[in-house]
Design brief:
four-stranded antiparallel beta sheet; globular; 4 strands; 95 residues; alpha+beta; single chain; 4 helices
Length: 95
C-alpha cells in the first residue's frame, strides 16, 4: 500500500509531468545544486513517471534547467522565494 501511495505522490520529491501530449511530455523535478541533476531522488521519481507514461520505451529530446519565472524576476525576488531550482527532461515515447 505504501509503495503505491509513494509512487502516486512521486514520493514527495515533487517530480511531475508538464506539457503532456499523447507521445511525450516534460518531466520536472527540484534540484538544489548541479550535483543533484543526475543523482537525486527527484530524478529517479521523474524517470519513474516517464516509464509509466511510455511503457514501450522513450528517448530524451532535451533536458536542462527550467526558469521559475525569469532571470530578472528571480534576481529581484532573491531571498523571498525558495532556493530550489527546477530541472526538466523533455521526452518522446517510442512508437
Amino acid at each position: 500500500m505504501f509503495a503505491a501511495a509513494c509512487m502516486a505522490a512521486a514520493c514527495g520529491h515533487d517530480a511531475a509531468l508538464v506539457r503532456e501530449a499523447d507521445n511525450g511530455a516534460v518531466a520536472t523535478y527540484a534540484i538544489q545544486s548541479d550535483a543533484d541533476v543526475l543523482s537525486s531522488a527527484g530524478r529517479r521519481d521523474a524517470i519513474h513517471l516517464i516509464n509509466e507514461k511510455c511503457p514501450r520505451g522513450w528517448r530524451i529530446l532535451k533536458e536542462g534547467e527550467v526558469p521559475k519565472v525569469s532571470a530578472t524576476a528571480d534576481r529581484l525576488w532573491s531571498g523571498q522565494i525558495g532556493t530550489d531550482r527546477i530541472w526538466g527532461i523533455q521526452f518522446a515515447c517510442t512508437p
